[in-house]
Sequence to fold (609 residues):
Amino acid sequence: MSASGPVSAGRLAAVLLGLGLVVALVSLGALFLGSASVPPADVLAVLAGRVKGVDQVVVLSLRLPRILAALLAGGALAVAGAAFQALARNPLAEPSILGVSSGAAFGVIVAQVFGLGGGIVEALGLAACAFAGAVVAGLAVYLIAARAGGLPIQTLLLAGVIMSLFFSSAITVVISVIDFDRLGGVVHWLLGNLGPIAPGSLAVFAAVTVIGFWLVLRPARQLNLLALGEESAQQLGVDAEALKRRIFAGAALLTSATVAFVGPIGFVGLIVPQSLRMLLGSDNRVVIPAAMLGGGAFLLLADTLARNVIAPAELSVGVITAFCGTPFFIYLLRARTGEPRL
Amino acid sequence: MTALVECQHVGFAYAASGAGRSFAIRDLSFEVPLGETFGVIGPNASGKTTLVRLLSKVLEPSAGRVLLGGKDLAGLSRAAVARQIAIVPQDVPRGFPHTVEELVLMGRFPRAPGRFFENARDRIAARHAMETVGVMDLRAALLDRLSGGERQRVMLARALAQEPTLLVLDEPTAHLDLRYQAECAGLLRRLGRDAGLTIVLVSHDLGFAAELSDRLLLMADGAAVRVGSPETVIDEAVLESAYGCRVIVDKHPVSRRPTVHLIYPRA
Fold:
């Protein structure tokens, strides 16, 4: 199913405007809701700069950075998912399923064990180590699963599961050996935690996400051609090898930034791009920018839910996305009868 | 007549892999003049598909060179090659997620690889290509929903949207029933004669190739066995040695072109 007619700048603008509105609405909701009850009038007063004190701290230092982090993380994961799906020509490819998230998480744990100081240096170091872990895991999965003529769905999923298990075990080993006391916090982070994020970290997160997003978005037209198979794409003028490297680097950057700053949240990269394709068609020039906004809105919604369902305690956002993602994954797996489809 | 495509002593060998026997193209030379329909025939594993890959710069020859309009293919960018040569593959991958019109527009990529969206000129070219092969009504359909014959025509439309000088068809009739074969033949005749396209037609179907081609190249074991008019190439002794089976060559009752009958061995 596809919306009428081929993609144009006008249609993309309309889609982005619509999704922008959704993001704005969800953000407003998240700003007004929370375990510390701040009356709506006070939230508005804080935003207008007329109120100081606890309310200001809650709204500006807790809720606002959290909203920004959720929008960034959701967008990054959804775009990474769309990129991996186009790259593997496989609808079930997704950072957490491919093991890329686990690799990045291992990188983060190692970085934390060795200590990176604080502030921007720490943020950059975490992102770099996460990226290294993501690349290692991604390459390993590719090498295990690649066959002449593509990435068969079963081997790809199994390779991803194996890599996830391996890196999860490695994480457990590192944590047990080095610092037992920090296990509690780490478990919370491993499920995805959009808790307090420092302004410096948020800035690094945003910068890395912009770079990764650009790497994936700019060749979106070539990425469409890759669905024809590498040989046909080459015959139409696409440098398939360079394209694949660029998309992989972009998707790994987006995944690792998210893992470094909010943890390995699963399934966003599966649910969001697939839903968008059902609504908007498969053209990556629409799906990828739409995933940036749609993924942000989705994760922010999930996080707002996670903050409020058992308030004053809170769930990890990854629990919510996993509860949504598991039935979705099963549906896709059953509906696609095991054929490599997109 | 100037040659549009010229293969000069082209050699190529795939990297040896454990399974399967090694295969190589050896000292292959031929030329295709502008406006000609040139058929390539030969048994399985004779090198026809490898030849298509060499012509489209998916593979680079290890010896000799391929010239396109007098220029070495090795010195041209992929997009520059794709502006001149359009390949019509046998099929799209299963589960191909795009619509007919999206696929046909993909043929416009080499015209402006730096552009993010197609422009009005691209849309006109795509519509024209879809009208030429008669798939305008299918433009919003997903490829998966189409029959083999319809998909074949859509891929031809994508190739025409490239506005190439050379059209290379890889087994165009492989999945087609008789009616679609007839349609395909009519379409290729129109493109060759009316639109003046140079066509390289790779086919298993000797009758189909002989019917449509001005000249034929018969390949076996990666080398040229014979190049020439259909009458000189479709020859009982030549075919029997290339294919290793017995045949009778006859003339088509209407077109007077050579046709081949297989002599089925008795049990």
